[in-house]
Specification:
single chain, about 170 residues, alpha+beta, HIT family, subunit A, 5 helices
């Protein structure tokens, strides 16, 4: 059996059951001037984009419906379409700013599928680079995230807004 070590996730995992409310709902409800503090990159009509505070890689974003929905099949067509449009814009913004070689996209539906938050679905966008799996996690049990979340926020936000506000 092989083990996957992810010690950088312990900060989230140790607190997941302590959240008194949904952290996604809390983040999207913030006034405009507080969105950066909560890492909300964009707030649309039916969905929003937020940085993952405990990322697997630099630029790890999540797109979630604004409504607190835990069942994928309950998403209405307008929400699904906005999530898709936000996904396309996020990929382009990430390509323009941090230039990944590829992406992992996905939903973790249910605890057994890896969902840390089952009650509010969200799509993960994880930028990937050739060689981003290196010796550090294997030998040192350490994941190196080379960029600060708020620095990335400030770099990506203008690109995302330009893409989403283009005619």
């Amino acid at each position: 059996m092989k083990l996957l070590w992810a010690p950088w996730r312990s900060g989230y995992v140790e607190k997941v059951d302590q959240f008194s409310e949904c952290f996604l709902c809390e983040a999207v409800r913030q006034p405009e001037e507080k969105l950066r503090d909560y890492l909300v990159l964009y707030r649309g009509k039916k969905a929003f984009v937020i940085f993952n505070k405990y990322p697997y890689n630099a630029g790890h974003l999540m797109i979630a419906p604004k409504d607190h929905i835990g069942d994928f099949s309950l998403l209405d067509e307008e929400t699904v379409l906005e999530i898709h449009k936000l996904t396309v814009a996020c990929i382009k913004a990430l390509e323009q700013t941090i230039k990944p070689h590829g992406f992992n996209l996905g939903y973790n539906l249910g605890r057994s599928a890896g969902a840390g938050l089952e009650s509010h679905i969200h799509l993960h966008i994880v930028p990937r680079w050739n060689g981003d799996t290196n010796f550090m996690p294997t030998v040192a049990q350490t994941k190196v995230i080379s960029q600060d979340l708020w620095e990335l926020y400030d770099r990506i936000k203008p690109h995302l807004e330009r893409l989403l506000n283009a005619p």
